[in-house]
Specification:
Largest sheet: 9 strands, mixed
Shape: globular
Order of helices and strands: HHEEHEHEHEEEHHEHE
Strand content: 15-25%
Number of helices: 8
Distance between the termini: 29 Å
Oligomer: single chain
Radius of gyration: 18 Å
Helix content: 25-40%
Amino acid sequence: MTAPNFGSPMTAVGRMLAYFTFTAAVMPVQWLAVGLRWRLRKTLPHWYHRHACRVLGIRIEARGAISQAHPTLFVANHVSYLDVEVLGALAKVSFVAKAEVATWPFFSWLARLQETVFVERRAQRTAEHRDEIAQRLEDGDDLVLFAEGTSGDGNGVLPFKSALLSVAERRPRGEALTVQPVSISYTRLDGVPLGRYLRPFFAWYGDMDLGPHLWHALSLGYVTVVVEFHEAVTIERFGSRKALCDHCHAVVSGGVASALSGRPQQPAALLEAG
């Protein structure tokens, strides 16, 4: 994809400087909180992401009710590296991320400080990763699983992979695990619908280089992200992991289609970014 011929380099520079300065100030506190197992390690990232969204020019429209059950496994589609900021601004969660993230400069530190669970795509490691995720849920942690296994172009939802959803067959703390489907949609730029042409300037997928993509995204205006929290369910309602996975995919796909069409299914609450 060629770079857009609009946007402000000064905006990108300003946002990057503000973001890295803010992040550098927060990271040592979170490092101590994680190392000493303070309760702050759960609340500080939530506060951090809310302010980071403002710095980065992200406005969030939240729809639906966030599950109040702990633990909850949030099952979402994946559009961009910005998804972490967006969901982290809405809930006190940790993430399930692909193992490659653990090798990224700077962002790997952020991921570890938010107690991310790193998983490999190799099938032979699935059971080990499932057990690690299950233990985190047993400890009461709320986790976000990007069920596509990769990020898409934001215009639709890729098939969900059911392997890691096998954790829903467990009963953390003796009760059926609460699973909440979540749809993420990048819908507007400065209030104007993005459309298929502009959405990839925020969606990060395929062989896009992270640095240039991030620069272009930050040089643009304020992006609106619609996040819809759908009805929370358990595997007991469906009887199998596959059926639960299919349900989550259908619900998330419907939420994305609704948001992109501009026809909200539920009232939205605006989290201002500026």
